[in-house]
């Protein structure tokens, strides 16, 4: 299994358009995640069908999205600076906490989907699916915004 992606090559050279394309795609993913959960909240406004406490996963994923993208790659590597309140070690810890929140939100949304809707055999499952897709879209939007852009053009 090692090297199974070695033969895959992308000959697309986005050049100057890489940052705008990655930013727009990440924004569309983030927007789609929140749009899905707003749709579910409007369709199922009662507490019996859709607990309002389930919105916590999306809020935590949004906080994680901002935490991950608040530090630059240069700060994490240590090329930016080494003085001040956030050293490279502090930037790494900050980003680790952001990734932990992001993964935790995604896993919690899966738990809500399967534990709260599928296993309990409720009549409607869409709110659970919406919670999962909201967190998945925010998670992948955060990854795309962090690693899809290049900082050389700044």
Q: Note the run of SSEs as H and E.
A: HHHHH
Q: Tally the beta strands.
A: 0
Instruction: Give the overall average pLDDT.
Output: 86
Structural class: mainly alpha
* Overall number of structural domains: 1
Query: Helix amount, in percent?
Result: 55-70%
Measure the end-to-end span. Answer: 38 Å
Quaternary class: single chain
Largest beta-sheet details: none
SSE layout:
Elements: H1 18-43, H2 55-70, H3 73-77, H4 88-118, H5 126-147
Helix pairs in contact: 1-5, 2-4, 2-5, 4-5
Explain briefly what this protein structure is:
This protein is mostly helical and 154 residues long. Helix content is 65%, strand content 0%. The longest helix is centred in the last third of the chain and has 31 residues, at 88-118.
